[in-house]
Amino acid sequence: MSQTINSSSFLIYLAGFASASILFFARKVYKDGLLSSIITISRSVPGVQSIISAEQKKLGSEIGSMIRSEFKFLTIDYEELPKEGLSKDEIFRKFDTLLKHHHSFNEGKAFGGIYHEDEELHDIATQAHVKFASTNALFPSIFPALKKFENEVVRMTRHILHGDERVVGVMTTGGTESILMSIKAYRDKAKKERGITQPEMIVPVTAHPAFCKGAHYFGVKFVIIPVDPQTYEADVKAIKDAVNRNTIMIVASAPSYPQGVIDPIEEIASLAKKRNIPLHVDACLGAYILPWLHHLTKKWDFAVPGVTSISADLHKYGGGPKGTSLILYRDSSYRRYQHFTTGYWAGGLYCSPSMTGSRAGGVIASAWATMVARGEKGYMLAAKEIHKHFVKLCVGISSIPNLKLMGKPEACCIAFIAQGIDTFKIADAMEARGWKNLNRLRQGVQIQVGHKNSFDIDKWLQDLSECTTELKNNPDKYKGMAAIYGMASKIPADAGIIEPILEDYLEALYE
Hints:
By secondary structure, the protein is of the alpha/beta class.
């Protein structure tokens, strides 16, 4: 028996030692479905972790080299302040030189998180920002106009989202801050009112990573639940099974970023209401477009009993300036827990409604100007035009042999996967043709649809079809990010292998 145990141990160790170099081989073997299991087992074998770490560093170094190559045209001109300040003309000449490198965006071949190209609206928003650039919403008594703007942006948005006069909100710097605020509010509410000291949140795997970030920041257990493998909607039964006495919130998306699918929010809300658990709907993508897509039958906003908060990004389909989002609550009993207040400070009493202290007045004024300039009719027309492009892309992608849509996209985003072809290499092939608007998912690739006349849909679909055919005939062509994303798609999310590589990527950006 002892000899058998020793032999088994040796075989396990040998297998583990061999798989320890998994990152070295991953770019070649990531199609092997055993990869996930091998990594999970091998990490516990003595000596394996050090080899994995070495391969992580090697891959991180390679990514660093890729970043440096991509941005080799950038030079550091100032390690210290210039002795004499630059003139306005000198500064703007530098701007013009650098803006030339934004060619892929200017040519309509990159998305870049910019959702519209309305020059008139952009001009209004820019001028509004300039007028209020030197204001600060931290001091409403000094800058009362900002109080008016913010309150009216909240009220207009709550009306769009079928909220009554009890619905309240706060403007934030973006969707991530809006999401973080909801987690903070629900954590504190649960602690004070229910005595929960080990909070948990239930989050579909398709929800935005800001929820994971918030869980990390605020010490909330992140409970991931699966989605239906065919529809990509959150699994309501899995949510029900995950609920326990420590659950402080449930999350749903309208729509989800990966596949553009709206979760079954009416069902989830019914469950949440019965269990007296807050339900947050992340509508950072959908808040300013879904209300005008009347063909959609799913209900998802404050019209649904049980929905207690919604995050809504004005700087996406709302047409607002970057750095404008809202977090809205069913009533002020939730929002009160978002605030930060303290009386200990030697500098006096202090309070703030969100993460930041000072809040730039320019973007608040610009957001207000955007909404009143567009009006109901403007949002309706924009939604109609965007959805026309959305449908054309869905039909076009579906008609290309070997490509399959992931689920039934409903708005904003379209995800697809290749059959018999490396999906990630399609993104590399499209990028080689200048297209930088395909986002690589853990499984599949995705395109976001905006209000952009510069985006040539017909040319994009033609190139996509040609790239798919090219890779079918020559599968070994293109060696960009495909290997890295292919490897990542097979590694367990909680394996702790990918994160250090991503840290290296971030560090390389700041070199």
